[in-house]
Amino acid sequence: MTTAGARERDVALRDLALRLLDAADERGIAPIVQVGHPALRAVAAPFDGQLADEELARLLAVMHRTMRAAPGVGLAAPQIGLPLAIAVVEDPGTVDAEAARVREREAVPFRVLVNPSYTQVGDERVGFYEGCLSVIGYQAVVPRARQVRLTGFDERGTVLDEHVHGWAARIVQHETDHLGGTLYVDRALLRSLAASDEQGARWLLEPRPTTAAQVLGFPLD
């Protein structure tokens, strides 16, 4: 991309971000776009100062409120229609001690990921049910790396370079994938796909989807 082209792109992204923020409801919550929206299949542009500090802070606040209201444990900017490489994550954890142990799910405080990327650490992969705020009504088992190296920046420009494991690593992978135009269903075991109804909720009750694998006929290992 030429310098002029990059400048035009950045101006367009800023204008889009401000329009989306102005369109948030009275609670400061933005609509979450659903599968089929082009922003979910675009490769997000790297964040490179397209927004002023106060504009970025406003965007992050709207994303945080939108994620919590959904409710979800992560939200990428493309999910509100903005193809910019920013995501927010926050996970309160689970009160189910066995699920927390099996899924290695610990609480994750609110944090911002700017231009994140990840690489798998080790060979171990684990499969658990996932859903997505942009694919309402369904869930599926996604095999993911148990541990990843996360790199990128936070909202203050501080460099991130850390190993993340367990459920937190799953969240990082899910949200970072959004920034590359990849949805969880692209990586899912499709025979595990289940509606988020009473039957589907039963599969989520198991710490690991062993019964679902047996009944629906998909491999877990």
From TrEMBL:
Essential cofactor(s): Fe(2+)
Keywords on record:
Hydrolase, Iron, Metal-binding, Protein biosynthesis
Catalytic residues, per the record, are E175
Protein's GO biological process: translation
Cofactor binding, per record: Binds 1 Fe(2+) ion.
- Look up the EC number in the record and give it: 3.5.1.88
Q: Which reaction does it catalyse?
A: N-terminal N-formyl-L-methionyl-[peptide] + H2O = N-terminal L-methionyl-[peptide] + formate
User: Where, by residue number, does Fe cation bind?
Assistant: C132, H174, H178
Q: Matching Pfam families, A to Z?
A: Pep_deformylase (PF01327)
- Where does the sequence pass through the membrane? none
Gene3D superfamilies the UniProt entry points to: Peptide deformylase
**InterPro entries reported for this sequence:** Peptide_deformylase, Peptide_deformylase_sf
Q: Which GO terms describe its molecular function?
A: metal ion binding; peptide deformylase activity
Which superkingdom is the protein from? Bacteria
* Family statement: Belongs to the polypeptide deformylase family.
Q: What does this protein do?
A: Removes the formyl group from the N-terminal Met of newly synthesized proteins. Requires at least a dipeptide for an efficient rate of reaction. N-terminal L-methionine is a prerequisite for activity but the enzyme has broad specificity at other positions.
PANTHER family xrefs: PEPTIDE DEFORMYLASE, PEPTIDE DEFORMYLASE, MITOCHONDRIAL
Protein name from the UniProt record: Peptide deformylase
Q: Which organism is it from?
A: Cellulomonas soli
